[in-house]
Specification:
Blueprint: E1 8-9, H1 13-17, H2 20-29, E2 32-36, E3 42-46, H3 49-56, E4 61-62, H4 70-76, H5 83-87, H6 98-107, H7 112-117, H8 119-131, E5 139-140, H9 141-146, H10 149-158, H11 162-167, H12 186-210, H13 215-221, H14 227-240, H15 243-258, H16 260-268, H17 273-283, E6 294-295, E7 299-301, E8 304-306, E9 311-314, H18 316-320, H19 354-371, E10 376-377, E11 399-401
Parallel strand pairs: 1-2, 3-9
Antiparallel strand pairs: 2-3, 4-6, 5-11, 7-8, 10-11
Helix pairs in contact: 8-10, 8-19, 12-13, 15-17, 15-19, 17-19
């Protein structure tokens, strides 16, 4: 089917269930397309691997929202002020030199050596969760595992105390979804936003009182952060540190359920797991699209003249299925090597918690496959409900049989 006239709509249940045919059409035509998001925002979408890699490293592009033009700001600045000013000045929306200073504050806490040292503790968490699974009937892996494991791991890494961990509500993560001023869900959105702000204030108050050498305590004590930057960094840690991993656990398992031969092989060959995780990240990344980038001046972008302040988005999923970079790109190949996927981005905004996410995925998959040798979907694939998130991929629930 031919592409619709641009801008191409990037929403709807069919698109969220399987965006790859559309990405193939777009990528085959040219690397950059005008697209439309549910909020009405029009953007420039980069799809090919080479173009995506170049865009992620393009120093002309900035992430700070002040670079967005009036048309973008009218529809994309969904979070109202003062919350937008208080919670949206985190790493993802900063440029050097501020970005460099802020990123340096967190890097050591997500370093591979530190993550590996915590692996036994993460395994204890996973074992405890699966040990509490219901004894009978299908269970929802999102509710019982995929949504809980990343929060508990994150709490260990950043120093979130147990009482505050227990208070965190996953639905607060919905505040990153576009809910415009005229949307009937706007009151609910604003309620969640205020609740999350109160929670962040409580986290900061706790750390000011107790101190310590954990990441949260060090951020609270940092004299290089304004109050808004501190709030924003904690906001980013709490939201970005959970949902992408939750969703990646689900996309990885669905990919394996679709390929029972690869699932059986992974059970037989546990040493294959690290390489398999890289291929599962490439095959269906939970971080489907990057956040906004902007040009400060009108300029060429891969053959298209892009006005200053227009939003530019990179499709990581489309790039990861580019056959010019990955032979037989639509095939799940656990032997694929090298595998230079872009699931964690690239350049200065490469995900600082990539090492943690990799270890979480390895532990989650190994634990589930070892403990439940007959793990399988309890519903048909058509019954799975994909979340309507703008940037991410995953399912609302994942009903499985464990026996």
């Amino acid at each position: 089917m031919a592409l619709p006239e641009e801008p191409v709509p990037l929403y709807g249940p069919d698109y969220k269930r399987d965006p790859y045919p559309l990405y193939t059409e777009m990528r085959d035509r040219c690397p950059v397309h005008r697209v439309e998001f549910p909020s009405g925002v029009n953007a420039w979408l980069v799809t090919g691997y080479q173009a995506a890699h170049a865009t992620l490293n393009d120093r002309r592009l900035g992430k700070n929202h002040t670079l967005g033009n009036d048309d973008w700001r009218a529809l994309a600045s969904i979070m109202p002020d003062p919350q937008h000013s208080q919670l949206q000045v985190h790493l993802l929306h900063q440029d050097p030199p501020k970005h460099t200073t802020m990123r340096r504050l967190i890097l050591d806490h997500f370093a591979p050596r530190r993550v590996e040292a915590l692996r036994p503790r993460f395994q204890e968490i996973a074992d405890a969760l699966v040990g509490g699974f219901p004894a009978t009937g299908p269970i929802d892996l999102v509710e019982h595992f995929a949504a809980r494991f990343p929060l508990l791991v994150l709490a260990e890494v950043i120093g979130l105390p147990p009482e505050l961990t227990a208070r965190f509500r996953r639905e607060w993560g919905k505040v990153v979804a576009p809910v415009g001023p005229q949307d009937p869900q706007r009151p609910e959105y604003e309620r969640l936003l205020h609740e999350l702000q109160t929670y962040i204030a409580d986290v900061i108050a706790d750390k000011r009182k107790t101190g310590g050498d954990d990441l949260l305590a060090q951020l609270v004590a940092a004299d290089t952060l304004s109050q808004e930057e501190l709030d924003s960094m904690i906001f980013q840690l709490l939201v970005a540190g959970q949902d992408p991993v939750t969703n990646q656990i689900t996309t990885a398992l669905i990919a394996l359920f679709r390929h029972p031969d690869q699932l059986a092989r992974l059970r037989r060959e546990p040493d294959l797991l690290p390489q398999a995780v890289e291929e599962l990240l490439r095959y269906d990344s939970a971080f489907e699209l990057t956040t906004w980038r902007f040009l400060a001046q009108d300029a060429d972008l891969h053959g298209h003249r892009v006005p200053a302040g227009d939003s530019i988005i990179v499709s990581l999923c489309a790039a990861n299925r580019d056959p010019e970079r990955f032979p037989d790109a639509d095939r799940l190949d656990l032997d694929r090597s090298p595998n230079p996927h872009l699931a964690f981005g690239h350049g200065i905004h490469f995900c600082p918690a990539a090492a943690l996410a990799r270890v979480e995925l390895q532990i989650a998959l190994r634990t589930l496959l070892d403990r439940f040798p007959t793990l399988r979907l309890a519903v048909s694939e058509d019954e799975l409900s994909w979340i309507p998130a703008v940037l991410g991929r995953g399912v609302r629930s994942l009903p499985v049989h464990t026996r």
